[in-house]
Every structure is written in C-alpha cells, then in structure tokens.
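QA checklist item 7 of 12: single-chain prediction sanity check.
[x] sequence parsed
[x] length recorded as 227
[x] structure emitted
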Amino acid sequence: MITIYHYLKIDALLDLNETIAAKVFEGCTYPWEILSGIKDEILRLGPTLAKEDYNKIGEDIWIAKSATVAATAYINGPAIIGKNAEIRHGAFIRGNAIVGEGAVVGNSTELKNVILFNKVQVPHFNYVGDSILGFGSHMGAGCITSNVKSDKTLVKVKLSEGVIDTEMKKFGAIIGDHVEVGCNSVLNPGSIIGRNANIYPLSMVRGYVAADSIYKNAGEIVSKNVD
C-alpha cells in the first residue's frame, strides 16, 4: 500500500491559478514530480504565448513586453519571463526557468530549473535551483535552496511519519504560497514549506515545515494559530 501524504500534495501547497505552467502539474501527486519536465513545458508553452504580449529573444526565451529586464541581467534559455516581472541588475537565469507575473529576480540572484509563481520575490543574493516557489512567496537576502546532497545520494523528503524517496539527485525546495523565508537561511535538499509559514533568519531547514507555522529552529516550530 502506497501512503499518500495529503499535506504535501500539489493543491495543498500551490495555487495553480497563479502560474502559466499549471498544465505541467496535471497527473502528478506531489509538486517535485514536475521538476524534470520544466524544460519541455517551456518549449511547449513559449510558442503559444500571444505575440502582442511577449517578445521572443534569441533561442527559446520569451519575455513579456511589460517586464523590466536590466541591461546587466543574463538570461539563458529556455526561459519565460512573465508580465510585469522585474529582472534586476546582475541577475543570472541559467535556463529552464519560468518567472511568474509580477515576480522580482534581484541583484546577484541565480535561477536554474525553477518555476516562480506570480508575485514571487527573490530580490537579493539568492540561489534557487530545482525548486518551485508558490504565489506571493518571498526569500530574504542571502537565502538559498541547496539542491544536491553533499554525499551525492538521492534526495529524500523527511517527515515525522516516515521518509519519501524522490529518486532524484537534484531537488531543492518546494515553497508554498505566501511563505516568508528569513535572511541568510538555507533550505536543504528536499525541504517542503507549507502555505503561510515563516522561517526565522539564519535557519537551516530540512524536511517538512507545516502550513501556518513559524520555524524558529529545528526543535521549535510553533503554530501561528496558537494565542
């Protein structure tokens, strides 16, 4: 019997109305299952984007006409930059990246194989790799997703009830809608952050952080709903 962890399912973490890449999640149970399909989804979706709204730049890069892209930013395809997004000075988009509408990719931030839902902010010195960031989530300055284990073994999602073997070598984090990650925090491979959670600055996170909670340290995670 296969155990389904309902709090990790796509609809428990992410509002698919807030990304143009909703189709890639079809038929999947957990959001990390789509990480290997981001490139193909961009190549499928890009040519369908309205020419009055998007420019195709170079090979397999689509940038919304309403987006702001600094002259010093570097974008490697395949990539889609959504409407009213802001790509700031020194940003480095390595490829296989979907940047949602109204999202901010800031100074010295690097993206690789990611989906940023609408209104995501990764504005200062962030690394986001092999990850999905939900609607309205924000990573403070210096936050990173660590996407490969130091011993190079396959990534597992660690839960209080057990362990899920993802069978993936590269998997950073899934950050739910409206999550706030404090400055200089590290999300270790396979981290899942539930909707509306807050992560204290300087945190080292591993495993699952429940929705509507505050992560102070590994031994102290409290509910926002407790008076």
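[x] summary fact logged: The radius of gyration is 17 Å.
[ ] second reviewer sign-off
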